[in-house]
Design goal:
Layout lengths: L1 H4 L8 H14 L8 H31 L12 H32 L3 E2 L7 H15 L4 E5 L13 E8 L5 E7 L7 E4 L2 E4 H7 L1 H4 L4 E12 L13 H11 L5 E7 L4 H11 L6 E4 L10 H4 L25 H7 L2 E5 L5 H11 L4 E8 L7 H11 L3 E6 L7 H14 L2 E3 L6 E2 L3 E8 L2 E9 L11 E8 L2 H15 L11 E3 L3 H13 L6 E6 L5 H12 L3 E6 L16 E6 L4 E2 L2 E5 L6 E4 L5 H5 L1 E7 L3 H16 L4 E4 L5 E3 L11 H17 L3 H12 L4
Parallel strand pairs: 1-6, 8-9, 11-12, 12-13, 14-25, 17-22, 19-20, 20-21
Antiparallel strand pairs: 2-4, 3-4, 3-7, 5-6, 7-8, 10-17, 11-15, 15-16, 16-17, 18-25, 19-23, 21-26, 23-24, 24-25, 26-27
C-alpha cells in the first residue's frame, strides 16, 4: 500500500500550491462589499507574500538547480520544471493583478483620492512637489555614474531605483543609476493625491546629472536570495555568526528583477549584464507600482480611515472580565480565541507574575514578539524584582532575527537566563510557565498557544490559547524547559507531545485509530500547510477505509482530493478572510480526547526539524467549543474555498435562498454580544448565544 501511495500523481507541487494560496489572497480584492482600502490591503499582502516567496522558495530552487539536484519533491518535478511553472503562473496572473489594481484606483478616484504620476499633476501641485523634491528628496537620493572608473554598485536585497541611459554634449552614451533609499516615503502625498516617488525623481533627473540629456530611464527593483545557511555546530559564538548571516542576506544571488513594461531595450541590457540575470527572471509591470507592499502606506493613512472597514475591538469574556487570570485558572481551564477575544489577558499573565511577590520563576519561549513588546518589558521587570526568568529566544525566526537579537541582549543585560537556540532545530513552541509559592507549596500556571507572544499580530491572526493549572501539563512544562537549557537524550514528554520525536507518531496513531471506524469515522484537521508525505499517506489510507476527512488548510496543500479509490472521502477547504487563519487544530470524532491544538503545521520542517508542542484539550467543554468553531468554518459560504478535482480552488457562494455564513464575522458578532450580555450578568443568555452563533443558527 505504501509503495502504491508513493505515486507522484497523488501529490500536488508545494510551490505551485503556494501560488494558488496567494491567488486566493488576491481574490479577496474581488469582494464587492469591501471598501476600497480593504481591497488595496489584499493587493499589498499579495505583493509582500510574493517577495518572501522569491527570496526563499524560488532562491532555494535555483540553488538546487545550480547544485545539480534534479528531484526534490513527492510530485517528482525537477527544480527546472518548477521554476518554469512558477514563471508561467505569475505571468498569466499579472493581467488579473493589474486589472484589479486599476479598478481599485478608479474606486479611490470616485472617493476623491488619487494615485498619479508627477507628469499628471496640475501646475500648482507640480510646483509644490518641486519644492518638496529639492527640500526633502534631492539631498538624500544617490546619483551613480557607471563606467570604467565608476563600477556598478552593490544593490541590497529589495533595492529600488532608476536606471538611466544618458548622453553628454559630445554625443557619448553613458549609463547611470539613481538609488532611492528606503528612508524616503514610497508615495509623496499632495492634498488627496499619492505620487510615486520614482515619477518625481525621473522628472528631475537633469538636476542629478547636469549637462546630460536623458535618453531613456526605467524604475527597477531587485530581489536577492535571502535565506541564511548557518553552520551552528561550527559556531563558537552563535550571536556572531547570526549577525554575519544577517549581513549576508544583502549579498545573495539576484533571483528577480522587476521593471516597468515600457523599459528601453538598452536599459534592460545594461541591468541584465551587471546583475547577471536572465530575461526569464525579469518581470514587467505596466500599471502596478514596483513593491506592492508599499501600498500599506496608503492603506494606513489615518486621513483615509473612512475608506477602510473599522477594525474589530477584541473583548474580554467571562471569567476574565471579572477576575484576574490566576484566580480564574484556579477554578477551570480557560481557552481564548484571538483576535475575537482580547490578547490582554496573555500580557497580564506575565505582567501580574512579574508583580507578584509569590512568583518564583517565569519561563517562556519567544519566537516573534514584535518591536515594542510589553511582555519582554514585564520579563525585565520580573528579573529586577528577583524572580528567576528563563527565556528561550529563537534567533532563527526568519525575518525576525534582528528584532529577536535585540530583545535577547536586553533580557540578558537585565539578568535573565537567555537560551539562544538549539543546534539543528528551531524552537517554535508557544509556551509560558509561571511557578509560584502558594500555601507552602510550589504551584505551576501554564499558558500554551498556537500563536506568538505578539500583541500586534494577535489582532490580525486567529489563534487559540489555553490557560491551565493542570499538574500533568505543568510537570511536562518543567521537563520541557530543562530540555531546552541542559543536555538531554530523552526528548519526550508524558502528557504533552513534542516534536521532533512525538508529534508525528501521535498524529499518525490518531488518524489510524479514527480510520478504524470506517464510514462512521470523521476527523477535521486545520493547519496552515499540509506537506508531510507520511501524514498525507495516512489520510489516504483512512479515506480508503471510508473515513470522512475535512481538511481546513489555509495555504499549501500537497494532498489531492477526489482520486478514485484513494481520496474520495477527503475534502480540502481553505478560509481566507480579513484575519489570517493561524491555529493548528486537530479533531477526531471517536478519540477519548477529541481536540488537540498545536504550534506545529503538517510539514516536515515542523514535525521533523523543529521543537513544537501538541496540546490535548482535556476539558470536554473546551473540546466541544473547538469542534463548534471548526464546523462553523466548514459551513462558511463567504470566505471558504474548496479544492476541486481539477486541483484548483473554487470559492463557495451561498446558494439561492441560503443564509449567508461568514464565520469570521459571526465570531465577531458572538464575542461582541457575549461581552455586552456579560455586563448584565446574564450567563444563561451567553450560553444560548454561543449555541446559536457557533452552530450557524443565529
Amino acid at each position: 500500500m505504501d509503495s502504491y501511495l508513493n505515486n507522484p500523481e497523488f501529490y500536488l507541487n508545494r510551490e505551485l500550491s503556494w501560488l494558488r494560496f496567494n491567488s486566493r489572497v488576491l481574490e479577496q480584492a474581488n469582494y464587492d462589499d469591501l471598501l476600497p482600502l480593504d481591497k488595496l490591503k489584499f493587493i499589498a499582502i499579495y505583493g509582500t507574500n510574493l517577495d518572501e516567496f522569491y527570496m526563499i522558495r524560488v532562491a532555494g530552487l535555483k540553488s538546487l538547480y545550480n547544485a545539480g539536484v534534479y528531484e526534490t519533491s513527492y510530485d517528482k518535478l525537477t527544480p527546472t520544471k518548477q521554476l518554469a511553472e512558477i514563471r508561467k503562473y505569475l505571468r498569466d496572473e499579472l493581467p488579473l493583478l493589474e486589472g484589479k489594481f486599476l479598478e481599485i484606483v478608479e474606486e479611490l478616484a470616485n472617493n476623491d483620492i488619487y494615485i498619479k504620476d508627477y507628469k499628471e499633476l496640475n501646475s500648482d501641485d507640480k510646483n509644490s512637489i518641486k519644492d518638496y523634491f529639492f527640500e526633502h528628496i534631492y539631498p538624500i537620493i544617490i546619483p551613480i555614474a557607471v563606467d570604467a572608473t565608476h563600477p556598478f554598485p552593490h544593490l541590497n536585497n529589495l533595492s529600488f531605483g532608476i536606471a538611466l541611459e544618458l548622453q553628454d554634449s559630445s554625443g557619448n552614451i553613458k549609463h547611470g543609476l539613481i538609488r532611492i533609499p528606503r528612508v524616503l516615503q514610497r508615495f509623496i502625498k499632495q492634498n488627496s493625491i499619492f505620487i510615486p516617488i520614482e515619477s518625481i525623481v525621473e522628472y528631475f533627473t537633469k538636476e542629478l546629472f547636469p549637462g546630460f540629456e536623458v535618453i531613456a530611464s526605467a524604475p527597477f527593483r531587485v530581489t536577492r536570495n535571502a535565506d541564511m545557511a548557518i553552520e551552528e555546530e561550527e559556531a563558537d559564538d552563535f550571536l556572531e555568526i547570526l549577525e554575519e548571516g544577517l549581513r549576508s542576506r544583502n549579498k545573495g544571488a539576484i533571483v528577480r528583477l522587476e521593471l516597468y513594461g515600457d523599459a528601453d531595450e538598452s536599459i534592460i541590457a545594461f541591468l541584465s549584464k551587471h546583475l547577471e540575470i536572465q530575461d526569464k527572471d525579469i518581470y514587467y509591470y505596466k500599471h502596478t507600482p514596483l513593491n506592492l507592499g508599499s501600498l500599506w502606506q496608503i492603506v494606513g493613512d489615518k486621513e483615509l480611515a473612512h475608506l477602510l472597514t473599522p477594525s474589530f475591538k477584541p473583548r474580554t469574556l467571562p471569567p476574565l472580565d471579572r477576575e484576574d487570570v490566576y484566580s480564574a485558572m484556579e477554578s477551570e481551564d480557560i481557552m481564548l480565541y484571538h483576535p475575537y477575544e482580547s490578547f490582554e489577558p496573555v500580557v497580564k499573565f506575565i505582567q501580574d507574575a512579574a508583580d507578584d511577590k509569590d512568583t518564583l520563576a517565569i519561563r517562556m519561549v519567544l519566537y516573534r514578539v514584535g518591536p515594542n513588546s510589553p511582555i519582554v518589558k514585564a520579563l525585565i521587570d520580573a528579573v529586577e524584582s528577583g524572580i528567576q526568568v528563563t527565556v528561550m529566544v529563537e534567533l532563527k525566526a526568519r525575518f525576525d532575527e534582528k528584532n529577536n537579537l535585540k530583545w535577547a541582549r536586553k533580557l540578558e543585560s537585565a539578568g535573565a537566563h537567555v537560551v539562544y537556540g538549539i543546534p539543528g532545530l528551531k524552537v517554535h513552541a508557544k509556551i509560558a510557565h509561571v511557578v509560584k509559592h502558594k500555601n507552602g507549596k510550589l504551584k505551576g500556571y501554564l499558558h500554551l498557544a498556537t500563536g506568538n507572544y505578539n500583541p500586534t499580530t494577535a489582532k490580525i491572526y486567529t489563534d487559540l490559547t489555553l490557560f491551565t493549572t493542570n499538574s500533568k501539563f505543568n510537570s511536562d512544562a518543567t521537563k520541557f524547559f530543562h530540555l531546552l537549557t541542559a543536555f538531554a537524550s530523552n526528548k519526550k514528554l508524558d502528557n504533552l507531545s513534542m516534536s521532533p520525536t512525538q508529534i508525528k507518531p501521535k498524529l499518525l496513531r490518531l488518524i489510524e485509530k479514527e480510520a478504524e471506524y470506517g464510514v462512521d469515522g470523521h476527523m477535521i484537521l486545520k493547519a496552515n500547510a499540509l506537506v508531510d508525505q507520511d501524514i498525507i499517506k495516512a489520510l489516504y489510507k483512512a479515506s480508503i477505509k471510508g473515513c470522512k476527512i475535512d481538511l481546513i488548510i489555509r495555504g499549501i496543500c500537497c494532498l489531492k482530493c477526489d482520486i478514485e479509490g484513494v481520496s474520495e472521502n477527503i475534502k480540502v477547504h481553505s478560509i481566507i478572510g480579513k484575519y489570517l487563519e493561524h491555529p493548528r487544530v486537530y479533531w477526531f470524532k471517536h478519540n477519548r480526547i477529541k481536540a488537540f491544538i498545536s504550534s506545529a503545521d503538517l510539514m516536515p520542517r515542523n514535525l521533523d526539524r523543529r521543537i513544537e508542542l501538541l496540546i490535548p484539550i482535556e476539558s470536554n467543554k473546551l473540546a466541544s467549543r473547538v469542534e463548534q468553531i471548526l464546523k462553523l468554518q466548514l459551513d462558511d459560504n463567504t470566505h471558504r474555498f474548496v479544492l476541486t478535482n481539477e486541483y484548483e480552488y473554487k470559492r463557495i457562494y451561498p446558494k439561492d435562498g441560503e443564509k449567508i455564513i461568514d464565520s469570521q464575522n459571526l465570531l465577531e458578532r458572538y464575542v461582541a454580544k457575549a461581552a455586552n450580555l456579560s455586563k448584565t450578568k446574564k450567563k444563561k443568555n451567553i450560553k444560548k448565544l454561543a449555541k446559536q452563533m457557533l452552530n450557524s443558527e443565529g
